[in-house]
Amino acid sequence: MKHSVPDSASDAAPELTSDLHPLMNRLKEASEPYALATVVRTISVTAAKAGAKAVIGRDGSIVGGWIGGGCARAAVVKAAKAALLDGETRLISIQPEDLLAELGVEPGEEREGVQFAKNMCPSQGTMDIFVEPVLPRPSLVICGASPVAIALARQAPTIGFEVTIAAPAEDLLVFAAGEKRIEGYDLGSLGDAETYILVSTQGRGDLLALEAALTVNARHVGFVGSRRKLASLKEKLLEKGFQSSELDHIKGPAGLDLGAITPEEIALSILAELLLIRRKNQRRTNIHHV
Prior knowledge:
This protein is of the alpha/beta class. Helix content is about 30%, strand content about 25%. It contains eight helices and 14 strands. The strands form two sheets. Strands 1, 2, 3, 4, 5, 6, 7 and 14 form an eight-stranded mixed beta sheet that branches. It has a six-stranded parallel beta sheet with strand order 10-9-8-11-12-13, sandwiched between helices. Strand 2 (about 55) and strand 3 (about 60-65) form a beta hairpin. Helix 4 packs across helix 8 (about 265-280). It is elongated, with a radius of gyration of 24 Å. It starts with 20 loop residues before the first helix and ends with a strand.
């Protein structure tokens, strides 16, 4: 039996669903992170069997599917919330206390990549559950329609960015179909995904685009232009009431110093910088982006 799909994890109700794909697709479209828990092995008597799945929202609520009752729920929800924070998968083995003792492990202990939990239910079965975080793809918002902006829009999806173009309506025509588009520089409609902003307006709305960028909780704001030009724009932003600490968030000229000359090379240097920022102090090889 299939059920209606909630608009987001936050307002979804737990449901038994034979096909979770519509729910996962809806969460993907809404840029909602979630974890997918899959029972991969059972021994003895357990409520759920191998292959059972559940979708867990970022608040820890089970928004679709089923993996058993309270015997498994607490351990899986805890693992799912941790996975959504650090982006890494988990393998949880829920076993009776006597079996844990035979293995020489304590509940909550991790050994060789497996996290152990105690089964408190009378059934005293064993369940192994794989928990996989599914996170929204990072968002790159490109302000402007310069040659560098066009090159960025082409290259960014190849390293996992979801691209949104913000530019005057007539300038949007230079971009190929496929990207999300915003007419002008009103960035208030952006979602909750990890966001990077690159301003490459080349004199067509520089100040307006930077103002808009500073209103977004972006991980990084880059400006394509000289240091002198950016300094001048920062002075104008100060006059508009922005604080120096806010302006320090703007990095310009954008990109790593690779000796880039052409728009394509400059775009590559910018993406290299964004990749460096994304991966800094993180080990995220197991993240599944949707």
